[in-house]
Amino acid sequence: MVLIRVGSPFDHYFGIMKITDVLRAEHAVFHNLFDHIEAAVPGLKGLAEVKALATVVQKLHGPHARTEDSLFMEPLEHCFDQIGQNETFHEEHRKIEAALAGALQAKTVKDAKRILLGAIAASRDHFDKEERIVFPLAERVLKAKTLSELGQAWLRRREMAADR
């Protein structure tokens, strides 16, 4: 018997999603993680504990930012150029990544906490801007088919990562 794979194993769970739906869902996960970190960090005593939380955020944020930059922002760059924001979104991703790296390099618990919480605050501000400005812009400018194709591209990336 030969099995033929039709679609994705994730289709059952996700169906066909627009990239904006995918990114909003990822943001929701991040906001829950940020809530936990903001509640936990003040009570942490060890540098390793703070760095462990920074590592979790870094490992999640990096792929998320790369997905946004390559799959989502590129088709909209002409719009961002017109409103003078093209480099802003990419720069915010870089600043968040640098802050997370800084938390991992901190020498004291106090500094690691301050830097990590600063990265969380910057992430929340950045996500808010994307949710208020970028996602609605994408849904106005890009065709529904394009948004769905970008959602499928995200899904293929997730599958490749899961296969590793």
Describe, in plain words, how this protein is organized in 3D.
- The protein has a single domain, classed as nmb1532 protein domain like (Four Helix Bundle (Hemerythrin (Met), subunit A), Up-down Bundle), CATH 1.20.120.
- It is built from seven helices and no strands.
- The two termini are 27 Å apart.
Features:
164 residues, mainly alpha, disordered N terminus, single chain, 80% helix
Q: What's the alpha carbon Rg, rounded to whole Å?
A: 18 Å
User: Uncertain regions: pLDDT < 50 for 5+ in a row?
Assistant: 1-12
CATH fold topology: Four Helix Bundle (Hemerythrin (Met), subunit A)
Gap between N and C termini: 27 Å
The helix/strand order is HHHHHHH
Quickly describe the structure.
The protein has 164 residues and is an all-alpha fold. The protein is 80% helix and 0% strand.
Structural topology:
Elements: H1 11-14, H2 19-40, H3 47-73, H4 77-82, H5 86-105, H6 109-141, H7 144-163
